[in-house]
Structure formats: structure tokens, C-alpha cells
Design the sequence.
């Protein structure tokens, strides 16, 4: 399979921090929640033009928030789990306060690894979660009261798989659930998670490779019996005939690989394409930042014909995050249906896709509405129109997340920032503090 570069489109950096997953509010698609690490989320009310850091627990823990759901019935309700988290936490007041609503009886960490919590499409307020704690705690959990309490409804034994990664639901038949598992296994339930069986995933086989993981499964909205899943490779000794994109056309009864063999992937999403086909996005992954023969990190590709042909993005501004990580893993891609935006969360930041058919307009989204700037030959002058908002400090990043300038805000009604040391290009300004900041995308021309 060959891919061609995507021309005339690019991903724009919104926040240069570790970003594991992103969800939008079903009633207000400008409201974003992004999973960070150490019990931290980032919230934006304006599609990424400003951000507020939200803590859901002690920050002195090395966990990662990888599964977030905002309720369809009450958008003040947010449910969060993740990798190495001490259960599931819930907010009923739009993130101001949080309660732990699920805890392991033995006080073990609970792993809801990769978007492994969902809200029932036919019964809003009912949730399912796939706990994938290795090696003997693979279980399906259910809440029927908008995430307030949870019960275990089934267990997938170690003989079946030693890890559950993600959970998905058929939109046209809500009794049917799928779980992506270690071993390159997809498990299917026809009774809302009570019983499970493996389905064929590759040329009739029920598994792909012992090290393979299936971290994301999605179904088409236009053709609900069509679905896509991706496979991650975790061991360099088993690359051959591993990884790739899987597709089903029979409602998940059978799957097979359609693209990217021998390539490690982690994220996928699909939206209705303009030509009557599925518009599919995928993102790559590898296990560490050490040299490896596994292909994956840095790969972001798109198919506008349901997976028949693919184009690859080659101009993404990969960089560095606040943990000094540079690996180019794409943890999640989210196609927001109302405003037709596409978001990507990666190891090095949160991004948005700018494309000719998108409703996103570069001029309108270049800065927060309360920030104004002028660009001169050797300086930027920033004016804050809201003196009541936070304006403690400013930072200027390249679009790959490298911090190039920073300082204290001394004159919010006209802060002069010298650009004599900067090369031509687009820069991301953050204005505020660590906990609350607004942003602007500022061009520097030499």
C-alpha cells in the first residue's frame, strides 16, 4: 500500500501539553475536555482559544487520563478514567468538584486504557466501561444512573486475553458491544456486555499476534454496519503481518485488514464524507522513544473513500511537551459532527485540522476574543481587553511546542514583545498563568 502527501491542509497546535483524549460537549461543541496526566484535565469553552487546568484528584501520581465521557442528558456530568487511575471519577457540576465513584476492592489501580468508557447511544445516562488491568482484572462495568454508581457485569478471563483496551457500541443496534483486546482480539457481545465471544479479525483468524493490541474501534454514522479498528504493535520481534487498519462491513461479525500492514496504530475516527463515502482518519504509535524498527509514531493519514486509498500528513509540527517527551504518538482523533472540526490529541499537544471544507476559519480563530495584537518588524504588541482575566505571564512557542520566549505581563494594555531573535513563521502565544491562559496564533514575517 502506498500513501501520498496531503496538500493544502495542516494541523494547528492548540496547546503544547501531553494530550491523551478529547471530547466535546454534545450541546455546545465549542466546549472541549482533554485528558492530561497526574489527575489533570484541560477544559476550553471556546474550541481551544483559552484553557483552564482542572484537577480531579491528587497531582502527585503518575497516571494518565485516557477515557472521558460527557453526559448527553446533563452536560454538567463528566466521567473520567484512565491508565493507572484509582477508579472512575465523576463531576456533576461541569468540573468544579469531583467524586470517586468506582474503586477497586483491593485498592488496585484500575486501567480504562484507551477511550474505554462510553455512554449508551440508545439510553443516555447508562454507561459501560472496559477495565483492562493486567493480568487478571479484565472486566466490564456498567452504570445505569448517569455514572453515580457502577457494577461489574462480566469478566473476560486471562485465557481469553490479558488486557482490555477499548470499548465501542453499534449505533444501530445498542445491544451489540465490542471490546478491543491484547492479542489483536476483538470481542463481541450481543447482550449489552453480559457475554462475550471473539470474532474473526484477520483472514478468519480470531487473533493477530500475542503482542498486538486493539486500542480503538469506531462505526460509520452513514453506514452503521461498517466499522474500523486499528492495531498497535508492542514488540519489535513480531512486526510481520501485524498492526494496521481493520474493517468490517457486516456489523462486526467479521473483520479484516485493509491497510497499513506491519504498522503500529493507536487512533481512528470516521465521519460522513462529502462524496457519500466514509472519511477516515488514523494516527500512529510506538511503545517508547528508544530506537526501534516498529513503524508508527508520526503517522497521521486520511482516507476519503472508506479505506480504499490513503493520504498521509507530512507537515505536522511535532515537538516537545511539558514532560520533555518528543515521541510522536497520536492518542486520539475526534471528528466533531456539528461544526465539522477534527481534533487530534498527541504526546506533544492538542491539534486542530485546518482544511478548505471546514467551518474553522483561520482569521476568526487566530486569537482569543479578548486578546488583540499587532505585528511589527521587530516586535509584537499584545493588548488584553479583559483586565479581570488572568494575565500574570506570557509564553511564546513555536508550532512544534518549543518555548522560545517568555516573561511577566507588565503592561496588559500594551505588552511589547521583541521578536528580533525569531525566525519567520507562526507562533503560539499563551497569556495568563499555568492554571488559566488564553492563546493567540501570531505570524512573524522577516
Sequence:
Amino acid at each position: 500500500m502506498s500513501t501520498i502527501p496531503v496538500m493544502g491542509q495542516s494541523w494547528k497546535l492548540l496547546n503544547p501539553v501531553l494530550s491523551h483524549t478529547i471530547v466535546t460537549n454534545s450541546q455546545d461543541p465549542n466546549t472541549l475536555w482533554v485528558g492530561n496526566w497526574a489527575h489533570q484535565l484541560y477544559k476550553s469553552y471556546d474550541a481551544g482559544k483559552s484553557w483552564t487546568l482542572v484537577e480531579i484528584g491528587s497531582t502527585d501520581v503518575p497516571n494518565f487520563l485516557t477515557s472521558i465521557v460527557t453526559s448527553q442528558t446533563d452536560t454538567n456530568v463528566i466521567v473520567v478514567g484512565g491508565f493507572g487511575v484509582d477508579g472512575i471519577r465523576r463531576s456533576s457540576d461541569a468540573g468544579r468538584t469531583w467524586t470517586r465513584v468506582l474503586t477497586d476492592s483491593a485498592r488496585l489501580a484500575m486501567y480504562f486504557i484507551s477511550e474505554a468508557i462510553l455512554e449508551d447511544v440508545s439510553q443516555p445516562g447508562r454507561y459501560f466501561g472496559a477495565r483492562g488491568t493486567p493480568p487478571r482484572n479484565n472486566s466490564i462495568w456498567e452504570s445505569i444512573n448517569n455514572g453515580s454508581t457502577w457494577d461489574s457485569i462480566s469478566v473476560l478471563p486471562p485465557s481469553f486475553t490479558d488486557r482490555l483496551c477499548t470499548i465501542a457500541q453499534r449505533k444501530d443496534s445498542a445491544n451489540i458491544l465490542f471490546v478491543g483486546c491484547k492479542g489483536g482480539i476483538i470481542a463481541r457481545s450481543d447482550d449489552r456486555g453480559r457475554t462475550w465471544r471473539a470474532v474473526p479479525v484477520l483472514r478468519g483468524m480470531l487473533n493477530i499476534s500475542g503482542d498486538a493490541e486493539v486500542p480503538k474501534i469506531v462505526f460509520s454514522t452513514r453506514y452503521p454496519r461498517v466499522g474500523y479498528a486499528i492495531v498497535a504493535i508492542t514488540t519489535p520481534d513480531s512486526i510481520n503481518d501485524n498492526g494496521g487498519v481493520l474493517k468490517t462491513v457486516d456489523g462486526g461479525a467479521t473483520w479484516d485488514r485493509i491497510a497499513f500492514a506491519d504498522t503500529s496504530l493507536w487512533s481512528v475516527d470516521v465521519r460522513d464524507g462529502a462524496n457519500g463515502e466514509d472519511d477516515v482518519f488514523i494516527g500512529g504509535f510506538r511503545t517508547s522513544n528508544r530506537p526501534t524498527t516498529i513503524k508508527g509514531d508520526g503517522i497521521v493519514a486520511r482516507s476519503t473513500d472508506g479505506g480504499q486509498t490513503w493520504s498521509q500528513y507530512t507537515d505536522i509540527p511535532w515537538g516537545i511537551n511539558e514532560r520533555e517527551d518528543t515521541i510522536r504518538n497520536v492518542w486520539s482523533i475526534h471528528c466533531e459532527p456539528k461544526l465539522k472540526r477534527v481534533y487530534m490529541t498527541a504526546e506533544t499537544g492538542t491539534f486542530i485540522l485546518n482544511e478548505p471544507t471546514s467551518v474553522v476559519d483561520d482569521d476568526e480563530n487566530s486569537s482569543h476574543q479578548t486578546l488583540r495584537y499587532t505585528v511589527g518588524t521587530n516586535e509584537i504588541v499584545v493588548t488584553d481587553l479583559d483586565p479581570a482575566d488572568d494575565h500574570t505571564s506570557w509564553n511564546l512557542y513555536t508550532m512544534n511546542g518549543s518555548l522560545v520566549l517568555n516573561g511577566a505581563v507588565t503592561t496588559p494594555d500594551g505588552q511589547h514583545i521583541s521578536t528580533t531573535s525569531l525566525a519567520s513563521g507562526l507562533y503560539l502565544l499563551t497569556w495568563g498563568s499555568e492554571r488559566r491562559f488564553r492563546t493567540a496564533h501570531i505570524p512573524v514575517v522577516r
